[in-house]
């Protein structure tokens, strides 16, 4: 999905395709962090849930960084935000909420 478009230059920027902008591949780290987070969501261990807070927090911070970096005006050319950028932020926020409230059954003293 496209994140932004710059109509004056005819450029459409996605997370992995950013030609003529110099942004690199900002969606690559989001994909990497989300993949690790997905695996940690599946593990029913307390250490996995605690470490998942780091990965989802980093993913949310990186998504926020991408939103600021990609959607700012450069040299008088202001981009038009597309749905993909908003979906990235919403997905990262939902992922963070899921990590904050895990479903874990703790074994221990029941007194």
What is the residue-mean pLDDT, rounded to a whole number?
89
Helix/strand structural class: mainly alpha
Overall tally of structural domains:
1
Beta-strand residue percentage: 5-15%
**How do the SSEs run, as a string of H and E?**
EEHHEH
Task: Return residue spans where pLDDT drops below 50 for at least 5 consecutive residues.
Answer: none
How much helix is in the residues?
40-55%
Main sheet summary = 3 strands, antiparallel
Radius of gyration: 18 Å
Keywords:
111 residues, mainly alpha, 3 strands, 54% helix
In terms of topology, how is this protein built?
Layout (H helix, E strand, L loop, with lengths): L3 E3 L4 E3 L13 H16 L3 H26 L8 E2 L1 H18 L11
Antiparallel strand pairs: 1-2, 1-3
Helix pairs in contact: 1-2, 2-3
Keywords: Membrane, Transmembrane, Transmembrane helix
Overview in brief:
With 111 residues, the protein is mainly alpha-helical. The chain contains three helices and three strands; from the N terminus they run E-E-H-H-E-H. Helix 1 runs antiparallel to helix 2 and helix 2 packs antiparallel against helix 3.
